[in-house]
C-alpha cells in the first residue's frame, strides 16, 4: 500500500449548539486505507462522519484533505425510502448531482457514470425495478452504486449492513473490500460489527467522544481499549445461543 | 359566456397541474399537511382582506408565503414539531378569519366562494395573477426536478453532495404557498389540500418510478378536473367539491388496480 497522506484530522471538536459530541479527535489516513470507526451508541461516530462530510463546521481543530474533498456517501436508510416510488436508475443517477452544476440536469457523461456503477455492482437486472420492491441487500447495492457516481476517492459508510441477513451482509462486506482494493478507494465505515472490523479493517478508530484508540487493527486487539471492547461485543466474549 | 368558460378552464388546468406535481414530493416527505395548514392561513388572510375591502388574492399571497417560511423554520429549528407547528398556525389563522368575517357583518357570499371555490367567478384580474404564479411553479418544478428528487429521496446524501437542502425545502414550501393561493379560486381554501394529495397518492398506487408518478399525477389531476367541471356543470353541484369527489373515486380505482396487479 502506498503511504500518500489522504486525510488528517487535528484536534477536531464538533458540537451541536453547546453540546460537544466529538472532542479533540486526531487521526490521519493514507490513500487506500480501510478505517472502521467503532464505539458505543452516542459516542460521536456519526457526528465525526458529519464533520468529514462537511455537514457540520469544526468548532475547533481542522480536517485536512490532501486530495479533492469528493466523497461518496452511503447514509443509513430512512423511513421515507421504504415505500418510495423511484426506479433504480433514477436513484443511481441522483449520485451525479452536485453543487458545481449550473443547471441540475444529467448529461450523457452522467448516464455513462451511472451505467458503469450499475454494471460494476452487478445490478443491471434491477435497473428498471422500483427501489421499494428490492430486498435490503439489493437496496444497499443500489445506494452503493449511487455513491460510486460521485467518483470520490473516499467512501463513507454509516452502518451499511444494518438490518441485512447474514448472506447479504457478507456480500456487502466483500463488495466494499473489492472497491477498496480494486479501485483504491479509501473507506471509512461506522460499524457495530467488531468481528468484521478485525477481518477487513486496516485501521480502527475507537471513540468515546474522544479517541480511545487509533491505530492498526493488529495493535487494537492488544490495546486495553480494544481488549475491553472485544470482550464485550465479540461472540467469543459472551455466550450466544 | 365563453370568456368565463375559458378563464375557468385555464385556471383549473393550471392549478390542477401545479398542485398535483408538488403533491408528489410533499406526500413522500410527509409534508402533505403543509398544504392544509397554508390553506387555513389563506382563508384567514382572505377574510381579513374582505373585511377591509381589499382584493383577497394580493393580500393573501404575501401572508401565505410568509407562513410557509415560518412553518418550515418552526419545524426545523425550534422545539415545536412540524405537525404541531402546522396545527398552531392553521388554527390561529382560521380563528382570525372567522372573527374578521363576523366583524365585517357575517359570512358573506365572497367568503363562501373562497372557502369552497367559485371557478365560474374567475375574473380577468384573477387571471393576471394566477397565470404568472402557476407558470413560476411549473418552471421551477421543471428546472429543479432532479434536485427535488434527490432531496426528497435522501436529504442526508443530498447535503453531503453539497446541495443546499434547506433552500430546496424552502423552495418547495414557497411553491406550495403560491399553489394554495391560486387554488383558492378553483376548489376553495378548504379543499385545496385534497387537490395536492389525491393525484400523487393515486399515482403511487400504480407506478414504480418517480418520473412515472409525476407524469401520471399531473395527467390524472387534469383529467379529474375536466371530468369534475363537466359533471358539475350538468348536475348543479358545487364545482370544487365535485372535482375532489372525482379525485377520491379515482384514488379508489387506482388502489384496486394496484392491489390486483400487485405493483409492490
Can you offer a commentary on this structure?
The complex is a heterodimer of chains A (241) and B (264). Chain A has helices spanning 45-52, 88-93, 108-120, 136-148, 166-182, 194-200, 217-222, 224-233; strands at residues 5-16, 19-30, 34-38, 60-65, 71-74, 154-158, 186-190, 203-208, 210-216. By secondary structure, chain A is α/β, with parallel strands linked by helices. In chain A, β6, α5 (166-182) and β7 (186-190) form a beta-alpha-beta unit. In chain A, α3 packs across α4 and α4 packs parallel to α5 (166-182). Residues 237-241 of chain A have low confidence and may be disordered. Chain B has helices at residues 2-28, 33-51, 56-77, 82-103, 109-116, 124-143, 145-153, 155-160, 165-183, 192-206, 210-234, 239-261. The mean pLDDT of chain B is 88. Chains A and B meet through α2 of A and α7, α8 and α11 of B.
Amino acid at each position: 500500500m502506498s503511504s500518500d497522506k489522504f486525510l488528517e484530522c487535528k484536534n477536531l471538536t464538533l458540537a451541536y449548539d453547546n453540546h460537544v459530541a466529538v472532542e479533540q479527535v486526531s487521526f490521519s489516513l493514507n490513500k487506500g486505507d480501510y478505517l472502521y470507526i467503532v464505539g458505543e451508541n452516542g459516542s460521536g461516530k456519526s457526528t465525526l462522519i458529519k464533520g468529514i462530510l462537511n455537514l457540520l463546521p469544526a468548532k475547533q481543530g481542522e480536517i485536512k484533505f490532501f486530495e479533492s474533498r469528493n466523497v461518496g456517501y452511503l447514509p443509513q436508510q430512512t423511513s421515507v425510502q421504504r415505500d418510495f416510488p423511484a426506479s433504480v436508475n433514477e436513484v443511481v443517477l441522483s449520485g451525479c448531482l452536485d453543487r458545481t452544476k449550473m443547471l441540475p440536469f444529467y448529461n450523457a457523461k452522467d448516464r455513462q457514470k451511472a451505467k458503469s456503477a450499475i454494471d460494476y455492482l452487478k445490478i443491471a437486472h434491477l435497473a428498471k425495478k422500483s427501489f421499494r420492491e428490492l430486498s435490503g441487500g439489493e437496496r444497499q447495492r443500489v445506494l452503493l452504486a449511487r455513491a460510486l457516481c460521485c467518483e470520490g476517492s473516499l467512501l463513507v459508510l454509516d452502518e451499511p449492513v444494518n438490518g441485512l441477513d447474514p448472506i447479504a451482509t457478507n456480500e456487502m462486506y466483500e463488495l466494499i473490500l473489492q472497491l477498496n482494493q480494486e479501485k483504491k478507494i479509501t473507506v471509512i465505515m461506522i460499524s457495530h460489527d467488531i468481528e468484521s472490523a478485525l477481518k477487513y479493517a486496516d485501521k480502527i478508530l475507537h471513540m468515546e467522544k474522544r479517541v480511545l484508540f487509533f491505530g492498526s487493527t493488529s495493535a487494537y486487539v492488544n490495546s486495553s481499549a480494544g481488549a475491553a471492547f472485544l470482550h464485550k461485543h465479540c461472540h467469543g466474549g459472551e455466550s450466544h445461543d | 359566456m365563453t370568456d368565463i368558460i375559458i378563464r375557468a378552464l385555464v385556471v383549473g388546468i393550471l392549478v390542477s397541474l401545479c398542485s398535483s406535481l408538488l403533491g408528489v414530493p410533499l406526500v413522500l416527505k410527509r409534508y402533505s399537511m403543509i398544504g392544509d395548514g397554508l390553506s387555513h392561513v389563506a382563508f384567514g388572510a382572505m377574510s381579513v382582506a374582505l373585511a377591509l375591502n381589499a382584493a383577497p388574492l394580493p393580500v393573501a399571497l404575501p401572508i401565505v408565503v410568509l407562513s410557509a417560511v415560518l412553518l418550515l423554520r418552526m419545524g426545523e429549528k425550534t422545539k415545536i414539531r412540524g405537525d404541531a407547528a402546522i396545527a398552531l398556525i392553521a388554527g390561529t389563522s382560521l380563528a382570525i378569519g372567522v372573527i374578521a368575517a363576523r366583524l365585517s357583518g357575517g359570512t358573506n357570499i365572497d367568503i363562501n366562494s373562497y372557502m369552497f371555490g367559485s371557478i365560474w367567478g374567475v375574473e380577468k384580474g384573477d387571471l393576471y395573477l394566477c397565470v404568472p404564479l402557476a407558470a413560476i411553479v411549473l418552471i421551477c418544478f421543471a428546472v429543479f426536478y432532479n434536485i427535488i428528487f434527490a432531496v426528497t429521496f435522501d436529504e442526508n446524501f443530498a447535503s453531503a453532495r453539497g446541495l443546499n437542502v434547506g433552500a430546496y425545502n424552502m423552495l418547495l414550501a414557497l411553491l406550495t404557498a403560491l399553489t394554495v393561493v391560486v387554488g383558492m379560486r378553483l376548489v376553495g381554501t378548504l379543499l385545496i389540500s385534497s387537490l395536492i394529495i389525491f393525484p400523487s397518492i393515486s399515482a403511487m398506487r400504480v407506478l414504480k418510478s418517480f418520473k412515472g408518478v409525476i407524469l401520471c399525477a399531473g395527467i390524472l389531476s387534469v383529467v379529474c378536473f375536466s371530468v369534475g367541471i363537466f359533471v358539475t356543470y350538468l348536475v348543479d353541484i358545487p364545482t370544487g367539491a365535485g372535482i375532489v369527489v372525482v379525485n377520491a373515486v379515482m384514488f379508489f380505482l387506482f388502489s384496486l388496480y394496484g392491489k390486483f396487479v400487485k405493483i409492490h
